């Protein structure tokens, strides 16, 4: 199991820390001494998550703050509060996500829900926090992608799937976009000389609420997802969180690194460096995505 290096004096923001991999990320970062901001859309679920961490680690330094990534006004309010407080942010874990609502759902900003939550919200959050991250020195941004990125395609003619919505396709697009953003930001940081590391990870296959939550969007009751397989190799959140933990904390973790499980089909096993799919590294793709996101969110990611 990966031992998170001492994080005393460091402050981390973890999106989607109310459950699943995000809660595990927050637990492990707090366990290593980081002060952790649990950025959650439900303060109630966030408080419960903080209680779970404190039950095991009474000294954990935690703060629960409201952040709905599917609402750009909420992202702005969250970021502005951190900027106004002016305290450093050393670690930003762009982890929260939603997967495969069966029908196309649209946010208050008119964006498709998976694109909004997984991509636009995290882009806007990172862009707004960029001045704080770069002023901090040695800050790291980690983006949670997925092996679904291997089958993703950025459809610039219809990023919001208004013409045709296919749930898995929209999810794969969003996770490819997360990886492209991680690589783009790494390149920008190097080119501008900003003291910032951007890296990405995927957790393999972890049977969290991701599958049923997405399938239940817009439905009155919880639904099972066909992607919840008992037969595929899967791992628990402790192992699943490791690739992103390594990206965020390992001394070897460099700009543009991508981590995932080393075991069969990349579904399970200890974290290792993995090769991003070629579709994520195409020349000019990051610039094009960032330009589109700046237009959709009204925020420039400038370093
Ligand atoms: N599990 C896997 O096998 C797997 C595989 C590949 C990639 N991933 C990625 O790993 C990340 C974490 O997923 P998970 O498996 O831990 O799923 P999860 O248990 O469903 O957790 C998702 C988290 O995201 C939060 N979230 C959803 N919509 C949000 C919004 N609009 N604003 C703020 N937070 C929001 C959820 O909050 P609530 O508590 O409010 O619902 C929850 O805390 C996702 O990015 C996912 O795509 C997971």
Describe the SSE topology:
Blueprint: E1 11-15, H1 20-31, E2 35-40, H2 43-56, E3 61-66, H3 72-85, E4 91-94, H4 113-136, E5 139-144, H5 167-192, E6 196-201, H6 210-216, H7 237-240, H8 242-249, E7 258-261, E8 271-273, H9 285-297
The structure holds NADP nicotinamide-adenine-dinucleotide phosphate.
Describe the structure.
With 303 residues, this protein is of the alpha/beta class. The chain has one domain (11-297): NAD(P)-binding Rossmann-like Domain (Rossmann fold). 40% of the residues lie in helices and 13% in strands. It has nine helices and eight strands. It has helices spanning 20-31, 43-56, 72-85, 113-136, 167-192, 210-216, 237-240, 242-249, 285-297; strands at residues 11-15, 35-40, 61-66, 91-94, 139-144, 196-201, 258-261, 271-273. Strands 3-2-1-4-5-6-7-8 form an eight-stranded mixed sheet, with helices on both faces. β1 (11-15), α1 and β2 form a beta-alpha-beta unit. α4 packs parallel to α5 (167-192) and α4 (113-136) crosses α9. It binds NADP nicotinamide-adenine-dinucleotide phosphate. The site of NADP nicotinamide-adenine-dinucleotide phosphate has 31 residues, from α1, α4 and α6.
């Amino acid at each position: 199991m990966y031992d998170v290096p001492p994080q005393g004096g460091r402050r981390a923001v973890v999106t989607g820390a109310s459950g699943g991999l995000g809660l595990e990320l927050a637990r492990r970062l707090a366990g290593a001494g980081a002060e952790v901001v649990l950025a959650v859309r439900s303060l109630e679920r966030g408080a419960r998550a903080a209680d779970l961490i404190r039950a095991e680690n009474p000294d954990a330094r935690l703060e629960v703050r409201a952040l709905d990534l599917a609402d750009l006004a909420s992202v702005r309010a969250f970021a502005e509060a951190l900027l106004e407080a002016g305290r450093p942010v050393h670690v930003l874990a762009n982890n929260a996500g939603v997967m495969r609502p069966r029908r196309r759902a649209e946010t208050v900003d008119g964006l498709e829900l998976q694109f909004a939550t997984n991509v636009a919200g995290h882009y806007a959050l990172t862009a707004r926090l960029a001045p704080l991250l770069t002023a901090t020195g040695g800050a790291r941004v980690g983006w949670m992608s997925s092996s679904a990125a291997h089958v993703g395609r950025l459809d610039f003619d219809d990023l919001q799937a208004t013409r045709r919505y296919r749930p898995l396709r929209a999810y794969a697009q969003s996770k490819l976009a997360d990886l492209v953003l991680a690589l783009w930001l790494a390149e920008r940081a190097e080119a501008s000389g900003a003291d910032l590391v951007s890296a990405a990870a995927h957790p393999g296959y972890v049977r969290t609420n991701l599958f049923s939550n997405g399938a239940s969007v817009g439905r009155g009751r919880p639904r099972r997802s066909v992607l919840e397989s008992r037969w595929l190799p899967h791992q628990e959140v402790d192992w699943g969180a490791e690739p992103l933990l390594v990206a965020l904390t390992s001394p070897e973790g460099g700009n543009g690194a991508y981590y995932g499980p080393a075991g069969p089909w990349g579904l399970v096993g200890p974290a290792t460096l993995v090769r991003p799919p070629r579709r994520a590294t195409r020349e000019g793709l990051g610039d094009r995505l960032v330009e589109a996101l700046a237009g959709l969110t009204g925020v420039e990611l400038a370093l």
